Every structure is written in C-alpha cells, then in structure tokens.
Amino acid sequence: MRTLIALTASTAILLVACGDAASRSGQSGTAAPTGGPLETRQANTAYKPAFAGQTRAPALAPSAYEVEVVASGLTRPWAVEPMADGRFLVTEKGGAMRLVSADGKLSAPIAGVPAVDPKGQGGLLDVALSPTFANDSLVYWTYSEPREGGSGTSVARGRLVEGPSGPRLENVQVILRTSPTYANGMHFGSRLAFAPDGKLFVTMGERSDLETRPQAQDLGSHLGKVLRINADGTVPRDNPFVGRAGALPEIWSLGHRNIQSAAFEPGTSRLWTSEHGPRGGDELNLTEAGKNYGWPAIGYGVEYAGGPVGPGRTAQEGMEQPVYYWDPVIAPSGMAIYDGDKFPGWRGNIFIGGMKDKALVRLALQGGRVVGEEHLLKDRGQRIRDVRQGQDGLLYVVTDGGELWRIRPRAG
C-alpha cells in the first residue's frame, strides 16, 4: 500500500507500508530471508555458481521507509556527496558541478571545473570530499578528459571557495591521468573511495571494445583496474606492483570490466566493488591488493549478441571468484555500506544503485557472503545513479530522471 502524505512545489513524501516484519529485520544487517530467491527470471546463461549463495539470494522481508524528493531539475546527475552542513555536491554528466541546499535549491554551476568529453558514458562523473574537508576544503572528482586521439579517465582536485560571485574551485590540479587514451565513449569506470588511512582508490573500466578488453589483464595499462594513490596523486610505496618491471605502480587489482560502485566497509580497510557484466555476470567483489578478478578470461555473462565471452569459462587458477553475481543484470551504479542508527536492521548492509531494473539493491551479509537481497524504490520507476549515506544516518540517491531523494524511516 502506498500513501502520498505531502506534496508541495519542492517536496513530495511517499510512504511505503510494508508491514511490521521490516522493523524486526534483525541486527547488524542479518535479516531473516522470507524463503525463495528474490530473482526468479530466466538467466541468460546456463553457468553454475562456484558455491552455494553466490547468486539468487533469498528475498529479505520488505523494509519500511519513506522517500522524500529533496530536489529536482538536475540534468543527468552522476554522483551525490552529502556535506556536513546539510548541503550536497552533485555532478551532472554534461560537465556541471552544483551545490544543492538542504531544502533543494540548486546553485549555479561551480566555476573552475575542467572541460569534459560527455560522449557516450563519459562526462563529469564521481565526486568526493577530502577526508579533511573541514580543514582543507578540497573536492576530488573524476571525468572523461578530452585528449588528442580520444579521451581518458582523469582525477582532479580543487579547493571549494564560496563568495559573492558564487561557488568556485581554486588551485585545480589533475592528480592522475590514466592511460592509454582511447577514442570511444564507453566504460570509464570512475568511482572514488577514500580508505580509512586517507589513500584514494579509483575504479576503472576497460573501455569495452574487443581491442581494449585484454588490457584488463595487462599491468602496463590502467584499463580494467582498481588504482590506489595518495591524496596528492603520488604512488604509495606499499602498492602491490611497485617495482615490478612493466607494471604501472598505481594498480591495486586487475581483471575488471567496468566498476561504477565502490565503498569501504565501515570500521575496516575492506574495499567492496561492484562491476558491470555483459548479458549476465554483474559482480560484487571484495577487492584486495594484487588480486586478479578475471575479466575477460572468466565471467558469468555472455556477449550482448549471444555466445560466450572469450573461452566461456567461469573459473581459472589464479583468478578470484565474485562474492556474488547477478544474471539477469542489475547494471550497478553507486554504492554505500550502511552504518547509521536510523535503520538498525540495515547496519552492515550493502546498497547498490540499479539502473536496469530501476531499483536500489540491498544486500545482507553474513560471514562475508550474501545471505539476502531486497530491491527498494522499484515503484518509483527511475534509474538509480548513485547512493550515499549522509552524516544524519539517512540514505541519499540521485536518479537519471534528475532528482535527489532522501530515504528515511517510515513515520510511526
């Protein structure tokens, strides 16, 4: 049952009445499943999981929550970053970065953002505040940088300054230019995640084409990798491939297709990522130093046109298995791992934006395995582009429809 309880020019609140079971869903995100798997559609492949629970987890009892539209009128937003003062930084794919007030007012585009190449999946992409933003006012972002011969994912930072003429970024520096440059508009990856020790992780795609796919296995290329750098762009000396001949020192892990989800498990240094598969084979991975996650040698999907990817294998010695995979796909976008106090039953749960099925995917973990799954927001009918937890313990999402939503506990 859904009840619209308030509607103004700027705010709409939707109640989702799901029954008392949701409020008793358990502690530390270990909600009891309701029975059969959440996913019941026919898979694209006949591949078998490597272990029990690797796919098609049981459905979780429905959550009880409300959705508030904080802001609308954004143009193809890609990322949202909640700020301590209740405002939000939002990137728009076409190249604008904006401040959004707590009551939904949009600033003019922030000055100082470099030009982007918005072709295809490119543009102005992720944004993250410095872990010491209160002291240094630094903002980090990723974008597809136009270059001679094509484009490439780059990471920049600048100091956010606000004045009478509007917000601007000063002392802008490009701290990482990934290589090689390539001339298409696909698979830029581009999620940023700061580790507890202040190191910055950057996720990469392999630019999709058959020509570039093999570079996901090539340590001389940034494509198809997770990268780890210091906050100033220099390379940490303890990166796993530092000093190896022919290897780029920024590389943390390899064998990825296109990662647009990344988050650190609260209170740990465990990095979780989710990457796009082709037809089938979206993956959730615990992404560790020096490990190979298999693309394109192994995977749980098939080509969009049908037929196996490469050798058509799902396992190979020396390559990691995903903790979980989806077939059919969810098309994963941003990720948050909940540790707030507003939803006790969600603590430790992973939330991933789902673009294909227009849902916010919730995963309950136990012992490092997925034990239950729920898809929220499906009734809203919008592609979820990013999800973050605010300092208020609520979740915030941006959608391809140009809206910023606040997810909070159901009243009463």
CATH topology: Neuraminidase
Give the termini distance in whole angstroms.
15 Å
Largest sheet: 6 strands, antiparallel
Number of domains: 1
Query: CATH first level: which class?
Result: Mainly Beta
Features of the shown structure:
412 residues, mainly beta, six-stranded antiparallel sheet, 1% helix, Neuraminidase, globular, four-stranded antiparallel sheet
Can you describe what's shown?
This protein is mostly beta strands. The chain has one domain (2-409): 6 Propeller (Neuraminidase), CATH 2.120.10.30. The protein is built from one helix and 27 strands. The protein has one helix at 133-136, and strands at residues 2-7, 12-16, 33-37, 58-60, 65-71, 77-82, 88-92, 97-100, 124-129, 138-147, 150-161, 168-177, 192-194, 200-203, 225-229, 251-254, 259-264, 271-275, 282-286, 324-326, 332-337, 350-354, 359-366, 369-376, 384-389, 395-399, 404-409. The strands form seven sheets. It has a six-stranded antiparallel β-sheet, with no helix packed on it. A four-stranded antiparallel β-sheet has the order 9-10-11-12, with no helix packed on it. The radius of gyration is 20 Å and the shape is globular. It starts with a strand and ends with a strand.
